[in-house]
Amino acid sequence: MKQPAAIVWFRQDLRLDDNPALEAAVKSGKPVVPVFIWDPDSEGDWSPGAASRSWLHFALKKLDKSLRAVGSRLVLHEGPTLECLEKLIDDTSADSVFWNRRYEPAVIARDTKIKTELSKRGLHVESFNAMLLFEPWTVKTKTATPYKVFTPFYRACLSQPEPDDPISAPQKLKSPGKWPTSAKLESLKLLPRIHWDTGIREAWRLDEPEESSLIDRFVQQGLAGYPEARDRPDVDGTSRVSPYLHSGELSPRRLWHAVRAATRRPKTGPPPKAAEGYLRELIWREFAYHLLFHFPKTVSEPLNAGFAKFAWRKDAGGLKAWQKGQTGYPIVDAGMRQLWTTGWMHNRVRMIVGSFLVKDLLLPWPEGAKWFWDTLVDADLANNTLGWQWVAGCGADAAPFFRIFNPIRQGEKFDPEGNYVREWVPELSKLPDRWIQKPWEAPESILKDAGIDLGRTYPQRLVDHDEARARALEEFKKSRETAE
DNA sequence: TTTTGAGTTGTTCGA
DNA sequence: GTCGAACAACTCAAA
């Protein structure tokens, strides 16, 4: 008689390293059937965006490759998840299904239903945590409510037991006697038909597993200077692991422990303070998941109800100019073009462009969230929602609305020589440092020498920041009056 | 229950 | 040039 198999349903845990669902399947002693199911419709309004799909394509390719290295392979299916799983269960005589949890509202609903259905059929179904250091329900205030302020959440996390040590990747997987049919990766059509994603392919090494060398390099070289360098878009001062964390190619526990070790090695490694600062950022990711889980409506609605009726503007042209990096503010345009080209934007610049959309243009933050969702290779519902609500001032522990980023000052402070602007806005590259963040103030002769014709070779400012700031504060004041 | 201290990332203004 | 205050109260979390 055919031996029943154990299905490992891969989702956002596209790795063999530190994968508890995979480990459980291996431990069962049964043949292991690794599966990925492409079913974007089941994720509601938040099926992966275009950049994420590109990333996913290569992540799946790498996963298949690493599975083949241990004597297995990745089975791909497309269609309604439950139907696909049921077919796979029949084809492989599987009696158990293992997966790692996700926390997006639509996905939780889908997965709960699947678990119920499969359990009803008598299967052993078990889910695990591979995505988070502290799952949302394990961190609670003294009165058992979810946290809404970061710092107490952070302290609560640190007082929790340390996240588990990562599990090693299995050396060998037991294959089923006969593999079930699999779709071809290309047939999932995750890559765009028009190749707008060449910039993404150039900016990232998509054909090789990069995640562990990224960690090593960052801990060895990047961590010590992280507190200062992390704010500088003109410097390679961040770990750049966000897309790997999102796809699950990188285990957060692996990352945590690699950096945590540095906090205990003051003599040889980077200063403990720098490592702590980085861990704090990882806890921000946990906080984002905490909020998404406990306040699922925040994906589209402000957490702070006082913002529900804020009179955002409608301005299709302004939105388009922002998306395309044609606002006339060099640091904003540099960021938006870096995003469009590489699928990634430096964190500091995300705040600047976010503030510009929401406060200078007074456009609704969900518009920004949607654009980021489609264009970021690290697009992550929890992080994206938190980030946009934070910058708009309507989220948990958010920047107050009156705290408005000045795109010129931010540029001068964090891109002092304008190198970041010059890289992404080449039409300004010949402009001297003094005017690189504010070309409209440059004398006509300087502009001419730099080959710039404002309004033709580079756009005029969409708005005057000082006026826009005053307008935003005024609108904020009004919305508070009408709210009462 | 009430009180109290505190809260990611800024900017501007006036002394 | 530097510094502190104002910007706006509000809500959270813990004592």
Description:
The structure is a single chain. This protein has 484 residues and is mainly α. The chain folds into 3 domains: 124 residues, HUPs (Rossmann fold, 3-Layer(aba) Sandwich); 119 residues, Serine Threonine Protein Phosphatase 5, Tetratricopeptide repeat, CATH 1.25.40.80; 179 residues, DNA Cyclobutane Dipyrimidine Photolyase, subunit A, domain 3. 48% of the residues lie in helices and 5% in strands. It contains 21 helices and 5 strands. Strands 3-2-1-4-5 form a 5-stranded parallel β-sheet, sandwiched between helices. Strand 2, helix 2 and strand 3 form a beta-alpha-beta unit. Helix 5 crosses helix 11, helix 11 crosses helix 16 and helix 15 runs antiparallel to helix 16. The model has no long low-confidence stretch (mean pLDDT 95). The protein binds a DNA duplex (15 and 15 nucleotides) through helix 5, helix 11, helix 14 and helix 21.
Any chance you could write out the topology, listing elements then pairs?
Blueprint: E1 6-10, H1 20-27, E2 32-38, H2 50-68, E3 75-78, H3 81-92, E4 96-100, H4 105-120, E5 124-128, H5 150-159, H6 198-203, H7 211-222, H8 226-229, H9 242-247, H10 252-263, H11 272-294, H12 316-324, H13 330-342, H14 347-360, H15 365-375, H16 381-392, H17 407-414, H18 419-424, H19 433-436, H20 444-449, H21 465-483
Parallel strand pairs: 1-2, 1-4, 2-3, 4-5
The chain binds a DNA duplex (15 and 15 nucleotides) through helix 5, helix 11, helix 14 and helix 21.
Largest sheet: 5 strands, parallel
As an assembly, this protein is single chain
CATH architecture designation of the largest domain: Orthogonal Bundle
Number of DSSP E strands: 5
Radius of gyration: 24 Å
- CATH fold annotation of the largest domain: DNA Cyclobutane Dipyrimidine Photolyase, subunit A, domain 3
Beta-strand content estimate = 5-15%
Ends distance: 72 Å
Question: What is the average of the pLDDT values?
Answer: 95
The CATH class of the largest domain is Mainly Alpha
The helix fraction, in percent, is 40-55%
